[in-house]
């Protein structure tokens, strides 16, 4: 199999994985990464979360807004620096985190199917 075909097949599997994840959980993979990255007992700043996602600050801001609208996270002002926004999980966010953790096994087969395309 040529490398271009392998890349295309990997892309299809990743697309399917994202689609299944969204259908099963009601949130995107990027939203799930934010939820996973937020500690259960304290807040994190947007810059840290942007680094966890490895996406632009602008994209992170959109994801955070979406999670805030869905009531998975709350935004508060920093104590020392009022310009800094801090994000933490709500009770609903904590439940979503646990729900995703319980369903991790469902995605293992899709991830395993990627291995056959990697030399």
TrEMBL record:
Major location category of this protein: cytoplasm
Keywords associated with the record: DNA-binding, Transcription, Transcription regulation
Top-level taxon of origin: Bacteria
Keyword DNA-binding: yes
Short name of any one Pfam family annotated for the protein: Staph_reg_Sar_Rot
Keyword Cell inner membrane attributed: no
PROSITE patterns per UniProt: HTH_MARR_2
Family annotation (Gene3D superfamilies): Winged helix-like DNA-binding domain superfamily/Winged helix DNA-binding domain
Name assigned to this protein: HTH-type transcriptional regulator SarZ
GO molecular function list: DNA binding; DNA-binding transcription factor activity
Protein family: Belongs to the SarZ family.
Residue ranges of every copy of the HTH marR-type domain listed in the record: 1-119
Organism: Dysgonomonas gadei ATCC BAA-286
Location(s), subcellular: Cytoplasm
